[in-house]
Amino acid sequence: MSQKPSAKNIGIIYHVIFWIAYYVLFSFVWAKDGRYYESFGLEFILMPIIISASYLSMHYLMPRYLLKEKLLNFIGLYLLLILGAGLLQRIFIYYYYDLIFSEITTELFSAWDTIRAIILVNSTVLFLSALKMYDYWKIEKASNQMEEQSLVEIRADKRTYRVPVDSITYVEGLGNYVTYYFTDRKPLISYSSLKDIEENLSKDFTRIHKSFVINRKHIDSYTNENVQINDRIIPIGKSMSLEL
After folding, report:
1. Quick one: which H or E segment has residue 46?
2. C-alpha separations of 140 from 54, 70, 137, 171, 173 in Å
3. How far apart are CA 93 and CA 112, in angstroms?
4. Strand pairing of 151-156 and 205-209?
5. Is 183 helix (H, G, I), strand (E, B) or coil?
6. How far apart, in whole angstroms, are the C-alpha atoms of residue 205 and residue 169?
7. Sorting pLDDT into bands at 50, 70 and 90, what band is 96?
């Protein structure tokens, strides 16, 4: 039975496809007068510089400096990276293309050709870094959403308490009031119905009695008649059952 490719392998495949497409596209774009052989050869030589600069920015500079809010460090190192990659690219262009194929003789580090090489490197690195930053943003957004979902707001004592859902061991209802019991704090009494509380809690909570909603994660022991959470024995209603 064949195994499905892992997310890591799929990611590698996407990267390979992207760089192959990049290589072919820009080889055609920069070809002059139908001289595709020269253009493909030059782009092949320059590709390692572009790839190295891109991954250094995405996987070293961004997580180590930008995401840790070391903005000045990131900007300085990013500029050095782009400058170094641009100069290195200019050297390869000069010795591979200008001296061999170009009919116009130029200096190694002529101002325009050097600036052009730096801009070309920066455009690719900046584009890919922006995509990577978008990935980081999506991960951060998902993390924040999960954190928000794991909190519940409880109105008690004229204040609104934001507490982790998992810290609630059980909720006891009495008339129009409910009492929340926790693993790490004193109980909170809130004006509400047990039915409303049950609807707003996670799937880990279940109602086992007309007066009790419990968190299954905190059950210490149980029988057909009751459950024990911490030192409290909570009865199971005659018309209800415990589902673990």
Report:
1. helix 36-56
2. 22, 18, 5, 32, 37
3. 13
4. unpaired
5. coil
6. 9
7. confident
Q: From residue 144, how far is each of 20, 119, 141, 165 by CA, in Å?
A: 36, 36, 5, 15
Candidates 21, 128, 136; CA nearest to 81 is 128
Name the pTM for this structure: 0.61
Residue 104 is classified by DSSP as S
Q: In whole angstroms, give the CA distance from residue 148 to residue 143.
A: 9
pLDDT in tens, 45-71: 999 999 999 999 999 999 999 999 899
Q: Token pair 């990276």 is at which residue? A: 81
Contact (Cβ atoms closer than 8 angstroms) between residue 113 and residue 87: no
What mean pLDDT value characterizes the chain? 88
Nearest to 64, CA basis, from 53, 80, 78, 83: 78
Q: For residues 244 and 13, what is the distance between their CA atoms, to the nearest angstrom?
A: 42
Task: Report in angstroms the alpha-carbon separations of 207 from 102, 213, 224, 233.
Answer: 81, 4, 14, 15
Tokens 């509400």 label which residue? 192
* 186's tokens: 């004193």
Cβ atoms of residues 214 and 208 within 8 Å: yes
Which range of 2-6, 52-56, 133-137 scores highest in mean pLDDT? It is 52-56
Q: Is there a contact between 203 and 229 (Cβ–Cβ < 8 Å)?
A: no
Q: Phi and psi at residue 223, in whole multiples of 5°?
A: -135, -170
Q: How far apart are CA 93 and CA 185, in angstroms?
A: 68
Q: Any bridge partners for residue 232, and if so which?
A: 229
Q: State residue 41 phi and psi, 5-degree precision.
A: -65, -45
